[in-house]
Amino acid sequence: MRNELKFCIYIIVCIIIGFVDFFFNLRGAFTLLFDIVLAVILILKKRKELEFINNTNNIYALLILLLFSIAINLSISKGFAQNTNNIDLYFITSIFLKSFTEEVIFRGYWLNSFLINRSKFFSIIFISLGFTVLHYFSGTDLVFAFIGSITLSLLYISTKSILNTFMVHLISNVFVVFGLPHVIKFYSNTEFKIKIKIIIIIFLLIIYFFKFLFKKSDDDKK
């Protein structure tokens, strides 16, 4: 069976499970359990193929993409504010676990599977479309979900580290839920909006500048 068909079947199964959660008002517990079981199976069966930590120096890519995800969030998300009545220990735990399981499943398994026979462009776009469809039911901004998946996929391809993509995914989700509602209170102010974007751009330039300096010093040592 072709990977494309397998992936589509997986997305359909996830949608069906999501409807069960919605129908019984389980707050995504059934979906989370399914993801955890699937991620554990993949880790046990594909542990030699899954790369959680890579020894290469990729801290700069991690920081740049983390700030990039926040910048996209500020630019695209409109008026999103999490209902604080639904924030409890389960909600916080599910954010942590979902970030991890999604990276194991989407980047660790599906992306690697497609990259064997497909181009990077096709592989990234195809799994990002599926990733976006699933996030539609959670109320996530679809443009942000799509670009976020592309960003995480590029990070995984460049660093081969699920740990890196998990960290960016988790911090981005935490920012969406806990940070963004507070930012929105001030973000309607045009002057504040411009300042935020300028600060982010400056941070990106500083990180890139330091990356260039360290790379140059490493070459000099050789």
Write the layout of secondary structure elements.
Layout: H1 3-23, H2 29-45, H3 59-76, H4 89-117, H5 120-136, H6 142-159, H7 162-187, H8 190-221
Helix pairs in contact: 1-2, 1-5, 2-4, 3-6, 3-7, 3-8, 4-5, 4-7, 5-6, 6-7
How would you describe this protein?
This protein is an all-alpha fold and 222 residues long. 80% of the residues lie in helices and 0% in strands. The protein is built from eight helices and no strands. The protein has helices at 3-23, 29-45, 59-76, 89-117, 120-136, 142-159, 162-187, 190-221. α2 packs across α4 (89-117). The longest helix has 32 residues, at 190-221. It is globular.
Features of the shown structure:
disordered C terminus, 222 residues, mainly alpha, single chain
